[in-house]
Amino acid sequence: MAHWSDDWLGMAYDEQHYNCSHFLAEVLSRQFGLDLDLPPPAATLRGRDKQVAQVLTLRCARVLGERREGDIVLALAHGRRAEVGHHSGVLVLPGTEPMLLHCMAGLGACRHPLSTLPARGLIVHGVYRWRS
Question: Label partner for 50 (CA 20 to 30 A): which of 2, 58, 88, 108?
Fold first, then answer.
């Protein structure tokens, strides 16, 4: 059976105009009616990390209980030294295993089981729910 996230697969990635944050905001807006109202990306990775930390503090709550579709997954690349993750995506449940719907350079929009992210160079930093 098809899952709604299938419709997002294959969308093109563009660092300046359609990166993981843009993708996250669009999916959450169209599928869940959430307006993320994210700031324009900072010019440096350090600046982006700071922005992510601010957004998480002001607008998100860490999910400690049951995860649900539409939760925000924040990941960190292996070897990155940062206090917060810098890659984001949407938690989806198309079957029995939780998956990350996200947009990456070289792949575009894709979906991966959370359990396979370490093999892809990503460590889940946390799962968050957007506060309205």
Answer: 108
